Amino acid sequence: MITGESPLGLVLLEMALLVLLGPLVTGIIQKLKARLQCRQGAGVLQPYRDLAKLFRKGTVQAETASGFFWSIPVLVLAATVAAGALVPVLRAGPPAFPMGDALMLLGLLALARFLTAVGALDAGGAFGGMGASREMTIAPLVEPVLMMVVFSTAVAAGTTELGALAAHRGTSWILGWSAADFLGFAAMLVLLPAETGRIPVDNPDTHLELTMLHEGMLLEHSGPGLGCMALASHTRQIVTLGLVSALFFPVATHGAGATDLLLGAGAFAAKILVLATYLALVESSYAKLRLFRVPQYLAIGFVCALTALALRIL
Amino acid sequence: MLLMAACYGAGALASLLARRSGRLALGVGHLAALAGAVAGLGVSLGVLLGDPGRTLTQALPDLFPFARLSLAVDGLSAFFLLVISLVAVAAALYGPAYLRAHSPAAGPARQAAQVLALNVFLGCMAFLVCAGDAMTFLLCWEGMTLASYVLVVSEDRDGENARAGLLYMVMTHGGTALLLIAFLALTERAGAFDFAALRAAAGDLDGTTRTTLFFLAFGGFATKAGVVPLHVWLPRAHPAAPSHVSALMSGVMLKVAIYGMLRFGFDLLAPVAGPLPASWGWTVLVAGTISAVLGVLYALQQHDLKRLLAFHSVENIGIILIGVGLAMILWRTEGAGGVLATVALTAALLHTVNHAAFKGLLFLAAGSVLCRTHVRNIEELGGLARRMPWTAGLFLLGAVAISGLPPLNGFVSEWLTFQALLGGASRFHGPAGLGIVFSAAMLALTGGLAAACFAKAFGVTFLGRARTPQAEHATEAPPSMIAGMVWLGALCVALGVAPGYAMRLLDAPTAGLLHGPGASAVVTARGPLVLSAGLTLSGISATTISMTVMAALLIALAAMAWILRRGVRSAAPRTAPTWTSGMIPTARFDYTATAFAKPLRFVFAALYRPRREVTRETAGTPYVVRRIRYAGEIVDLSETQIYHRVQRGITALSRTIRARSTGRIYGYIGFVLGTLFVALLLFGVGQ
How many Cβ pairs within 8 Å bridge chains A and B? Predict the structure, then answer.
């Protein structure tokens, strides 16, 4: 069943690809949102320009920040990018040398989030604390549901390794879907805005203290540090989208030829584009939920995921 | 073999020395404890790395005419001895400086008593896990309880510590009573006290008796381990002890109870063939899941640093019990069940040593804060990272480890638990499978909440501005205390980055208990760098991860990100005040722990039943507010729902009895005679 094994070089190439394309996905979502709201919007390359600007700037650090503050962006970026190494991009099938599975991926993303929250408390302002508190309220509610979605596919495949999961699902994806897959995918669609920090859970476009979660934690970062944090959130977004496509739409082939790789790259781009369009549509057509309504919203995902699992096991 | 004798010698000598010398007792007593711990390490490693299946036995002098005392160290005993010794090394390094710095005014008598109790405590725990018969086991059990009681009430002589100590004594002796019944029922059948005879006697028990005895023993051990709802003593007693003793109580003493459960469940009471009764494993699994979730939820709302850590012990015992329960359910089931049982038990044992390492580290770091500031409420701390960088860094390390985040050791054992749960779920179709998966989801929730809790605990204690003068004038802990913490921190990193090498140590306990393949044959089948869990049911290769590769990747990426972080201009960063909407920033702008945990208090209000009281003092009109008083509190559901009811029942009962007790002597004589008559009657019927 598992034929292809990706060499380490290919894994690193895929990881680099995710990091480089992450800002583009954000740019596309922003452009789509602008068009949906009848605006012209900035070009799709705007996130790259922002990053270039940030990395050229100097740093202003809060007086109260401790020695940890400087290294927080470094560690957050490293953990997020390492999670990117675990997502199959060009081909299905496990890597030649075992690295990590879906649980490791979620763990690394949780590590990045934990460190971001710690960094937010470091400067000692109320905004950072508020952002950290809210983020750490939502995260424990999202993670179990996400894990249940992973389990619902893993129980069928007998593994939590994402490449092997994708290979197990094969190429006839939607034709082979059972009711459990549809429910699991529905749960994933509910969770996607929460995990990527978008409306209706979070609003990435605002610095208004009443609405922000993730942005609030970044307020005291500046210059290259803020650049690292921004790059980490772009990467996190594309990694999450990659996780969804590895779990539900693995079209990539197992072959190692150039055509196979090109086909895999094209398929991956298409999948990411579809999911990005979904995010843009949701962001343009819904309002942000009140913070204390978010658990109810996530409960929809929980019920879907639990039903998917139940169907799979019973 | 002879190392064993050295271990006893060191422990006993230490107690003697500690009793005789005055202030010097601190140094000498802890040195002796260190020597005992190192000897314990030697013994346990000797057994664990020696030929499998070997049991080290040692007869003890006969103290009682009816029972022969002995020690028998098999794989399981040696593993728990290893856990005890690892934390004891850190505690012995940390102890002297801590006791001197924390209470400089303490008299030599109190210090000597503390060191004596510490040595007795350590010795009893070490002997308990090595006990070869029921008598030694129970004697050490009681010695461990009494020594830790002395340590709990030794610190400050205020009413709260005394009440905590009393509650501890009452609860734990309730548990001991259950244990005593279980043991005596077995010894009465066996006619002897040693474990081999008990095992043989348990062989021909009928199912109901066997299950009753298991639940008696489980109840007794669960009280000691702090399983919800028997945990109420734990968050009171653990913080009251000196910090290195808290580390031992949380990191090690609770594990001794886990040892007891494993010894009873898989060894003494296990049927000769066939799986364990289903009710055992499911009870343990459900108790573990409930403990894990409730433990972390109550921890989230604590603002006393040491009490918060104590509640996390309840959570982690829950995680260990999930693994133990799953192993009980799967043991000796047909097909791949045996392999999965090994994975589950490996996860539980690995989490045992992992929890000892990171919880020990966190308690020691909390102790450093406590001895420098004398404040336990984290709302009154803040900004300590700049004044105590070592303590802060090591606390952060422990926080990442306990939250189950890669690349540290907490993640490894939780990953194994998840894999075992997933494997178990796909084995059992129907409600059983769904129950196991639900337990996995609760474990995921626990991990997320633990991360939230430690973001709060670390952030509010160590980051931001100092909120009180005590926090402002704190200084770094002395080097010997840091050495104790670094030892445990290094353990957390080593067990996280290269856990495959530790699997070799788990071979003897897993193979010995389950009579199946050892841990390393299952989990590190593809070399020590690769962890794999046997989900080989559908013919697909098992899930494999490599912590070492991931750690290397993380370091490489961090180096690259570091270059990026320095930016094009490598000018030194400017500093500026934190943005507080144009006002001058003060410590009151910092987010407090109460505020941080408030959203989660709202989300889980059904469990917390929060009570909130706001009173305003106004000057004539409601628009001029002089003062606002706020009081908030959450309740422990098991306390209000179970213990308060029991308390009311006991009070009512004693009122009734008081009404009957007239104070006249012949009335009492009548009661005694009546009781005697009934007892004789029952005895006669029994004959």
Answer: 313
B444 residue type, one letter = A
Amino acid identity at A259: T
Enumerate the residues of chain B whose CB falls inside 8 A of the CB of residue A58. 567, 569, 571, 573-574
Contact B540 A228 (CB under 8 A): no
Q: Is B241 helix (H, G, I), strand (E, B) or coil?
A: coil
Find out whether B532 and B521 touch, Cβ atoms under 8 Å: no
Search chain B and give the residue with CA nearest A75.
Answer: B558
Phi first, then psi: what are they for B610, rounded to 5°? -65, 145
Query: Rounded to a whole number, what is the distance in Å from the CA of B84 to chain A's nearest CA?
Result: 29
Give me the residues of B, 365-384, that contact A with CB < 8 A.
382-383
Separation of alpha carbons A254 and A260, rounded Å = 8
Residue B57 has phi, psi (to 5 degrees) of -120, 155
Residue-wise pLDDT for B576-621, tens only, equals: 888 887 888 888 888 889 889 989 988 898 888 888 888 888 888 8
Q: Looking at chain A from residue 148 to 177, which residues have their Cβ under 8 Å from any Cβ of chain B?
A: 148, 151, 154-155, 157-161, 164, 168
Contact B510, B525 (CB under 8 A): no
Report whether B395 contacts B485 (CB < 8 A). Answer: no
Structure tokens at B47: 């057994």
> Which pair of structure tokens corresponds to residue B634?
């959450």
Q: What is the pTM of this model?
A: 0.94
CA distance B348 to B328: 12
What does each C-alpha distance from B156 to B152, B303, B621 come to in angstroms? Answer: 9, 20, 46
Tokens of B166: 């009393």
SS (H, E, C) B601-639: HHHCHHHHCCEEEEEEEECCCCCCEEEEEEEEECCCHHH
Q: What are phi and psi of B318, to 5 degrees?
A: -60, -45
Q: Helix, strand, or coil here: B666?
A: helix
Please tell me the distance from the alpha carbon of residue B219 to that of residue B230, in angstroms, as a whole number: 9
pLDDT for B43 equals: 84
Separation CA B603–CA B249 (nearest Å): 32
Examine the predicted complex and report whether its ipTM is higher than 0.90: yes
Chain-centre distance for alpha carbon B458? 20
pLDDT tens-digit map of A143-184: 999 999 999 888 888 788 888 888 877 665 667 788 889 999
Q: Where are the domains of chain B?
A: 274-560, 612-687
Question: What residues contact A222, with CB distance under 8 A and at least 6 apart?
Answer: A57, A59, A60, A61
Which residues contact residue B17 at a Cβ distance below 8 angstroms, ignoring those fewer than 6 apart? B25, B28, B29, B32
Residue B205, pLDDT score: 86
Q: Which of B567, B597, B602 sits opposite A223 (nearest CB)?
A: B567
| pLDDT(A81) > 70 | yes
When CB atoms are compared, the residue of A107, A158, A228 closest to B406 is A107
Please give the pLDDT value at position A1.
31
The distance of A242 to chain B (nearest Cα, Å) reads: 19
**Contact indicator for B39, B6 with CB cutoff of 8 Å:** yes
Place of tokens 């972390």: B296
DSSP notation for chain A: -----B-HHHHHHHHHHHHHHHHHHHHHHHHHHHHHTT-----TTHHHHHHHHHHHS--EEETT--THHHHHHHHHHHHHHHHHTTS--S--S-BSS----HHHHHHHHHHHHHHHHHHHHHS--HHHHHHHHHHHHHHHHHHHHHHHHHHHHHHHHT---HHHHHHHH-S-TGGG--HHHHHHHHHHHHHHHHHTT-TTT--TT---TTT-SHHHHTTT--HHHHHHHHHHHHHHHHHHHHHHHHHH-----S--SHHHHHHHHHHHHHHHHHHHHHHHHHHHH-PPPPGGGHHHHHHHHHHHHHHHHHHHH-
Residue whose token pair is 């407090």: B592
Would you call B374 helix, strand, or coil by DSSP? coil
